[in-house]
Description:
This protein has one domain (22-121): Rossmann fold, CATH 3.40.50. 34% of the residues lie in helices and 12% in strands. It is built from 5 helices and 4 strands. Strands 1-2 form a two-stranded antiparallel sheet. The chain has a two-stranded parallel ribbon with strand order 3-4.
Amino acid sequence: MNNLIVTEEKEDNPTKLVINGSVGYVAQIPWIQNATFKDNILFYKEFKPELYYKTLEICELNVDIENLKGGDLAEIGEKGINLSGGQKTRVSLARAIYSESDIYLFDDALVRWIHMLEIMYSTTASVIT
């Protein structure tokens, strides 16, 4: 069973976070590597074609890849300089989804993306605010 326990920080009780399972994190400000589009999603994981292409579809990245010279093998510049803000966010989300984590953490502004995980895994997600 996977667990996620978050407690509120108080003077006599410091914040405690206990996680049992793997974690996929999607930051409000996406972190993009100076690597290929594809490598930014795989993030050193083994290439699984079915998962990869489903992730691209769910994150609505297919059109972006079609517009990049070199497709998903196109080099993404330092900090994603050649991507828009929305593209960076969707690449970051795709990385988290591709990781097939047990638990997904989203910065508050990204909670709206949870529906993509629900579609991807045919499940419901819990939101902790």
